[in-house]
Amino acid sequence: MQKEGKGTDLIFKAMADPNRRKVLDLLFSNNGQTLSQLFAQLDMQRQSATQHIEILIDANLVTVVWKGREKLHFLNPVPIYEVYARWVRKFEENRLGFLHDLKAQLEGDNNGIT
Predict the structure, then answer these.
(1) In 3D, which of 62, 61, 63 has the Cα closest to residue 83?
(2) What is the pLDDT of residues 35-61, one digit of tens each?
(3) Which of 96, 91, 88, 75 is nearest to 22 (CA)?
(4) d(CA 37, CA 49)
(5) Directed axis angle between helix 6-15 and helix 46-58, to 10°?
(6) The whole model's pTM is what?
């Protein structure tokens, strides 16, 4: 069994909140945004947005790059992939493939194969 650490807990905590997931979605669609750009798209106070973004930074889901006086925020998809690899992929490979095949067979969607 794989060893888990504090980082995994931070990732789950960060992704548990819908506001933080929205920030991740915003960065996915347009990476490298300033806090002002992100704040303009969120329905919350600037201080709350800053706190949410700090939690994402602490979880290593968002990285910051300074470009002159601008602080740009970038999505870091590596921790999300690690959660997927550890927690999702192992469940989907065999069982979900089997369930998909069973569903297709029961519904008669077998692409002409009998």
Answers:
(1) 61
(2) 999 999 999 999 999 999 999 999 999
(3) 75
(4) 11
(5) 150
(6) 0.74
